[in-house]
Amino acid sequence: MRDGQQDLRKREFRRFVSWSAGAHLAVLGIVVISPGFHSRFDASQVIAVDLVSLPASALAPSVAPALPPPPSAKPVPPAEKAPPPPPESPKPKEVVLPKNPEREPSKPKPAPKPQEVAPKPEKDLDDLLADMRKDAGETAPAPKPVEQAAVPAPSATASAGTVKVSPEVLAWMRKAKLHVRSAWVVPPGFRREALETHVTVELDASGAVVGEPKITQRSGNPWYDEGVLHAIVKASPLPPPPAAGEWDFVFLPEDAAL
Amino acid sequence: MIEGGKGKTYRIAVQRFADRSTPQSAERIARFREALQNALEFSGLFQRVPDGAFLGPLETESLDDGAQIACPDWTQIGADALLQGEIARDSEGFRVAFRVWDTARCRDLMRRRYVQKATANPEDVARRVADDVVEAFLGVRGVSSTEIAFVSDRSGNKEIYVMQADGSNVRKATANGSINNFPNWSPDGQAIAYTSYRQGNRPLIFLSSRGALRPGRLLQSDGRSQYRAVFDPIGERLAVVLSNGSSSEIVSVDTDGKDVRRITQSQSIEVSPTWSPDGKRIAFVSDRTGAPQIYVMSASGGDEKRLTYDGAYNTNPSWSPDGLWIAYETRVDGQFDIWLIDPEGKVNVPLVTNERSDEAPSWAPNSRHIVFSSTRRGRADLYMIDRDGSNLRRLTGDAGNNTAPNWGPFPR
User: Fold this and answer.
1) Is B360 helix (H, G, I), strand (E, B) or coil?
2) Cβ–Cβ of B389/A192 closer than 8 Å?
3) Which residues in B lie closer than 8 A to residue A189 (C-beta atoms)?
4) Strands B10-14 and B314-319: what pairing?
5) How does pLDDT run across B112-156, given as a tens digit for each residue?
6) B154 and B303 share one domain
7) Cβ atoms B341, B283 nearer than 8 A
8) Chains A–B, number of C-beta pairs less than 8 Å apart
9) A214 in contact with chain B, both atoms CB, cutoff 8 A
10) Is residue B231 domain-resident?
11) Which residues in chain A have Cβ-Cβ distances shorter than 8 Å to B105?
């Protein structure tokens, strides 16, 4: 009899937990897609950059090592709702993003895993909702740092082809590319051809090229590709990167004229 | 004579090639090296590193497979590339071997060795080497070892001349005191077909071969004028323009002047044939619509298609050896500009525009450059320009008017 009552209470308790979890999920969904939620991110400081193609694994280290880790993956706004790029947004295909965060000597702490909704049964629904709003940042009074908002969710980036890069990283990208340009010779005859070479370069903290740069997408003209590799190695060391590790570069013939 | 701007170039250190000859000749080595460096610079791709900057050895020590170089010695002086080599000239021949290094990545890009005739002069061998070095960086051979035939009135009448592609070593190919025009190289570079008034004061086609004492007539006269002959890509036949005064047609003949086949059939004026590199098509000019326009047809005639629609006067087509483009001249305000159109007529872009006339384009055998005649300095001079519109350079000096250039093939 006592066992029967306990079984009944357990079943009721499980039912409550299931219902509670569903309710929390629903509330979370409402919170995340509400306009007010996104308005807390300071879009004016976020620079959106179009990507050519970028492996999802390349995205995480777009936060500079010195920056605090994002509190959660949840607050990332869907990419399709990202603010329009500012006028100074760089041309497409000029994106340079670091890869392999594990190579960074002073890598930021990994972002905590997104929390699954698993409320403890001791709390009542209001408590749980309050916790979730807090997790979602709804009650946070101050705007979050740009860099936190700039961390894209890989899936969002992949679907929209847009990622935000902090101004610090962007400034380095420009400097690095200018530096490589100074060593780059685009042979006559290649300058107006539709050539595009993607290269991954490993850099140490001082900007020195480590090993041989790797071509991740060939232009179709091996002599053009070789010229790009020559220029990168010749240009070493590049300006010190925000983080040591692998960085992606894209080279178009018209870049050489800049 | 070269004049014009350059883009950014690779800095190349050229070592003095080791002399393995018997007997040795410092003068030959020096001539070879100077010609080599000039030819590399002519490509528009390289500039030399002066000897005084060298930290590494001035002369090649070894070309052995295992031989390494101290790359920092070269990168430190800003050299992108290092060229090493050796020469051995004896009664057997003129042998040359070389190795090109990418000094930044410290790896060799190309190693080659070949034998030329013992009588070959050092400059010619050096240009062959330079053209190979260009290939190591560009994927297509350089053209310093090629020649350009052209017409000049520098001696008082129009004669055919030949020069190196860089404008050096100009020599006469005809000296008949008559009017000579439209030189055209055979694909093996051993003969030039041209039009001459040397017999009977009528234009007839002649063939002048290297080493031959006298030029020969290409085909017997049937009473019509023979205006221009153009070799097909394999040197078996020529397209020839024949005119009766009121109209002209294009025929093809074999190199003995036999097997004459008519390939255009209209009553209009049809001139300026140029073969596609596969020999299957011919682009030409016809005034069948009332004004000269460029058409493409089968090399055996038929299947004609009009190519140019922009501009009221388009002529002098030249099909690139890689088949991608047809260069031609178009009249604008009474002067001519040079444009490029693809053989399907889908892309049509200007290449050379100037308030004076730019005429008679002819492709380099690597399809990277075009030589043409321009009156931008008053008299007609020959210029070359890269296919992308860069590296405009004047090739002829101040002697006479220089016209009708035809770029020869790679030497064999």
Assistant:
1) strand
2) yes
3) 138, 368, 386-388
4) unpaired
5) 999 999 999 999 999 999 999 999 999 999 999 999 999 999 999
6) yes
7) no
8) 53
9) no
10) yes
11) 212, 229-230, 233
- Give the number of domains in chain A: 2
A210 neighbors A254 (Cβ within 8 angstroms): no
| Pairs from B326-333 (Cβ < 8 Å, separation ≥ 24) | B326/B274, B326/B283, B326/B294, B327/B351, B327/B361, B327/B362, B327/B363, B327/B370, B328/B294, B328/B361, B329/B358, B329/B359, B329/B360, B329/B361
Residue of A nearest to B387 (CA): A189
Structural domain including B158 reads: 147-407
Find out whether B126 and B28 touch, Cβ atoms under 8 Å: no
CB contact under 8 A, A189 and B368: yes
Provide the pairing of β-strand B180-185 with A245-251: unpaired
| pLDDT 10s digits, B91-117 | 889 999 999 999 999 999 999 999 999
How many angstroms away from the CA of A69 is the closest CA of chain B? 38
Q: Which of A61-75, A144-158, B225-239, B253-267 has the highest mean pLDDT?
A: B225-239
Distance between CA atoms of B330 and B344, rounded to whole angstroms? 18
Rounded Cα–Cα distance for residues A205 and A190 (Å): 33
Our CA-based measurement puts residue A229 at a distance from the nearest CA of chain B, in whole angstroms, of: 8
Other CB atoms within a 10 A radius of the CB of residue B146 amount to 23
Based on the structure, what is the number of domains in chain B?
2
Residues A205, A154 share a domain:
no
Q: Based on the domain organization, do A189 and A131 belong to the same domain?
A: no
d(CA B311, CA A165): 49
A114 and A41 housed in the same domain: yes
Q: Could you tell me which of A252, A251, A241 has the C-alpha nearest to residue A97?
A: A241
The H or E element containing residue B73 is: helix B71-75
Residues B106, B164, single domain; the answer is no
Does the CB of A187 have a partner CB in chain B at under 8 Å?
yes
Instruction: Please give the model's pTM, rounded to 2 decimal places.
Output: 0.73
**Interface check A215 vs B, CB under 8 A:** no
CA nearest to B328, candidates B345, B303, B192: B345
Give the whole-angstrom CA distance, residue B84 versus residue B71.
13
Do the Cβ atoms of A212 and B368 come within 8 Å? no
Residues of B with CB under 8 A from a CB of A: 7-10, 44-45, 75, 80, 102, 104-105, 109, 137-139, 368, 386-391
Hey, are the CB atoms on A191 and B388 less than 8 Å from each other? yes
Distance from CA of B110 to the nearest CA of A (A): 12
